[in-house]
Write a structure and sequence with these properties.
By secondary structure, the chain is α+β, with helices and mostly antiparallel strands. It folds into two domains: about 110 residues, 2-Layer Sandwich (60s Ribosomal Protein L30, Chain: A); about 180 residues, Phosphoribosyl-aminoimidazole Synthetase, Chain A, domain 2 (Alpha-Beta Complex), CATH 3.90.650. It contains ten helices and twelve strands. The longest helix is centred in the N-terminal third of the chain and has 17 residues.
Length: about 300
């Protein structure tokens, strides 16, 4: 996999049983706490390997830091990333830092995947149930934080979800031999969903009433506190989406909300759905069934 496919990592086959997965991601702070920022950035970078059904094993820091940033802040960013990598069983073996006016941090991540069991955006089949492993609303909540309009409890909830690894969700996908999957990040649920539908040659039907959101998302959506990327996502994906006529604008925009370190969106064959849900509960992995894969094209939202 490379430039031709919509997936977020490059994959190079080594032999019949092993392929190497390579990805990178970094971004400006989404929260105020330096340690949390580093932890979220690392979890987000690692997620692209998990979204391919792979296991990360090695990483490099990528950082751009201002000259006047206190050393205790930059060290906390790096510590947050290092401890999240250690939780994932990943070694950070160096990296590179440059000077910049605004902090930026993330990882280059290398992992392994069995090419016969790899997840991809083109792996959905008509009849699959669509399962999401983290709620939505991180973008609108962190934007409210930047504008000093967010409640502390809402920020803490968002941070807790963003810091969670997608490792268990990826292991579940491997255990059940799933083929269709991606992680929901900056392109939003509908943007990434559209990529999957087009790559798989199918349509998606999503039930809005079953889609999970963190506690403050609706409140901030009604205040219009969306990041600019939400409107970019809307402009790009909305022509391929069919909304209910009575769905209000905040609800629509929440589906275009960019996520940082979001969950996995997986296609689960119908005969495997019940055992998949039971196994998820055993592993304490959050899952929500939010729709199904159909023949056709585009995305339909049910109210």
């Amino acid at each position: 996999m490379g430039l031709r496919e919509p997936d977020d990592a490059a994959v190079w086959r080594l032999d019949d049983e092993r392929a190497i997965v390579v990805t990178t991601d970094f971004f400006t702070p989404v929260v105020d706490d330096a340690y949390d920022y580093g932890s979220i950035a690392a979890a987000n970078s690692l997620s692209d390997v998990y979204a391919m059904g792979g296991q990360p094993f090695l990483a490099l820091n990528v950082a751009a830091l201002p000259d006047n940033l206190p050393a205790e802040i930059s060290s906390e960013i790096i510590r947050g990333g290092a401890e999240k990598a250690r939780e994932a069983g990943v070694v950070i073996a160096g990296g590179h830092t440059v000077k910049d006016k605004e902090p930026k941090y993330g990882l280059v991540v290398i992992g392994f995947v069995d090419p016969r069991r790899m997840l991809s955006k083109g792996g959905l089949k008509a009849g699959d149930a669509l399962v999401l492993t983290k709620p939505l609303g991180f973008g609108v909540t962190t934007t409210a934080l930047k504008q000093q309009k967010a409640d502390e409890k809402d920020v803490l909830e968002a941070v807790d979800w963003m810091k969670r690894l997608n490792r268990t969700a990826s292991q579940l996908a491997n255990e059940f031999g799933l083929r269709g999957g991606t992680d929901i990040t900056g392109y939003s649920l509908l943007g990434h969903g559209m990529e999957m539908a087009e790559a798989s040659g199918v349509s998606l039907k999503l039930d809005f009433s079953t889609i999970p959101f963190i506690s403050g998302a609706r409140k901030y959506a009604e205040q219009g506190l969306f990041p600019g990327g939400a409107f970019d996502n809307q402009a790009h994906a909305e022509p391929n989406v069919r909304f209910p006529a009575d769905m209000d604008e905040p609800s629509r925009m929440l589906l275009f909300d960019p996520q940082t370190s979001g969950g996995l969106l997986l296609g689960v064959p119908p005969q495997q759905l019940d055992p998949f849900l039971r196994r998820s509960e055993e592993l304490d992995q959050a899952v929500w069934v939010i729709g199904e894969v159909k023949s056709g094209a585009g995305i339909e939202i049910l109210g």
